[in-house]
Design brief:
Length: 154
């Protein structure tokens, strides 16, 4: 019986407790906190600076369009690996009324969902990203630092 209980608690899609990882790093002088929580039906990723959240975005990993199947296949080009997958469609749930903030949110959410899908091609859970970036005018290196920090929590 002990092995059965251990399997439920530490299983990949265990419903209780939800698998959680956290990381923090200073990016451009701001402490950036990241937390990922894996539920049985959703993966939540929270990126916060200064303990704030300003928007929530969801990205379903399962495409309802069968014509986008080829997007799930790995690309041979190194440049293509940096781009979010084309079949992913982010949707704002809350916040992000400023156009710059919304674009940055969609870019982050799509990149995070692509990373999850690339890491586990069979993943079908919806990804929900909570963002609280104090500054949305990030340089390319800052964006990649944020994504790298998220990857350490996935």
């Amino acid at each position: 019986m002990a092995n059965f209980v251990e399997t439920i608690i530490t299983g990949e899609h265990a419903s209780f407790p939800a698998h959680t990882k956290q990381a923090a790093r200073e990016i451009k002088g701001l402490v950036t906190d990241v937390m990922s929580i894996s539920f049985a039906d959703k993966i939540i990723v929270i990126i916060s600076q200064g303990g704030k959240l300003s928007q929530w975005i969801q990205v379903p990993l399962e495409s309802s369009n069968p014509f986008f199947f080829e997007q799930h296949l790995p690309s041979d080009s190194e440049d293509d690996k940096l781009l979010p997958m084309a079949h992913l469609t982010p949707k704002t749930l809350l916040g992000g009324s400023d156009s710059k903030r919304q674009v940055m949110g969609y870019l982050c959410a799509s990149q995070i969902a692509s990373t999850i899908s690339t890491k586990n091609p069979g993943e079908t859970r919806t990804v929900i990203v909570g963002l609280g970036l104090l500054n949305v005018d990030h340089e390319r290196e800052d964006f990649f630092s944020i994504i790298e920090l998220v990857q350490s929590c996935l």
